[in-house]
Design goal:
The longest helix has 17 residues. 18% of the residues lie in helices and 56% in strands. The relative contact order is 0.21. Strands 1-2-3-4-5-7-8-9 form an eight-stranded antiparallel beta barrel. The protein starts with a helix and ends with a strand. The protein is globular. With 140 residues, the protein is of the alpha+beta class. A hairpin with a 2-residue loop joins strand 4 and strand 5. It has two helices and nine strands; from the N terminus they run H-E-E-E-H-E-E-E-E-E-E.
Amino acid sequence: MRENKFLIFFLSFFFISLNSQSEIIVLSKCDHKEDSFLKNEYILNLNELIMTRNYVYNEKTYQKYKITDLSVKKKNSYVRNIYEENGKILTLKHGYPQFYTQILFEKDKPDIYIKAVLNDVESLSKMSTCKKIEKFDQES
């Protein structure tokens, strides 16, 4: 009996995931409040719940950061876990319990915000505006 339940559960999960669709949102040609980039894009994979940011500094911005940090690369990429809450997409908290930051996206909107929280006091600052938003529904 127990084996039958497991088999039914496994087969159900297999067929559901076989026909599942994932939504991918690409925000590209994003400007930045403080820095300049040759490329600045965010890829939000809502099925895998990850955000990938790909960027290439322009020469002036690259030199600005290279002076103080020799590990800075002109072309870079990083991945963060994300989650959805009340129609907003947020990266996982980065920092300490008393002070942390998150990147905040709103579906179908070109603006990207940085959310900072210090001792439960929130602030929201516009970080970037993207000129191009693309949505892809991918069948697996």
